[in-house]
Write a structure and sequence with these properties.
The protein has 112 residues and is mainly α. Helix content is 64%, strand content 0%. The radius of gyration is 42 Å and the shape is elongated.
Length: 112
């Protein structure tokens, strides 16, 4: 029984080898493909063309309602008392700093 099994296994092996044998000659095309980045007629690359197009679209767009509101809001901002106080304090701090300069600081500021 073992002999029949071995014989049938060897027959199957040789049959598979003969039937499924692949051609040993493999041909490759030796043509090299040159990759040149494509450019449009203006000479711009794809990225610069995209950025230019995006900038053109931004200029053509009408401002949205929110953009209009923000422009008006910035123009109509009243000056609060806190902002006035901070501005006065910064001016006073600059004046005090000028008055309390040491001799070296005065020399260096006049030299420049």
């Amino acid at each position: 029984m073992d002999e029949n099994y071995l014989i049938s296994l060897m027959v199957a092996f040789f049959f598979g080898l003969a039937f499924f044998k692949k051609d040993t000659k493999i041909s490759f095309d030796t043509q090299e493909v040159s990759r040149i980045p494509s450019r449009n007629t203006s000479g711009h690359t794809g990225v610069s063309h995209y950025l230019q197009k995006k900038q053109d679209l931004r200029q053509e767009m009408n401002p949205t309602g929110v953009a209009k509101y923000l422009v008006l809001k910035e123009a109509d901002l009243p000056v609060s008392s806190v902002s006035k106080y901070i501005a006065r304090q910064s001016v006073l701090a600059n004046i005090v700093a000028e008055e309390n300069k040491s001799g070296v600081e005065k020399y260096l500021s006049n030299r420049s």
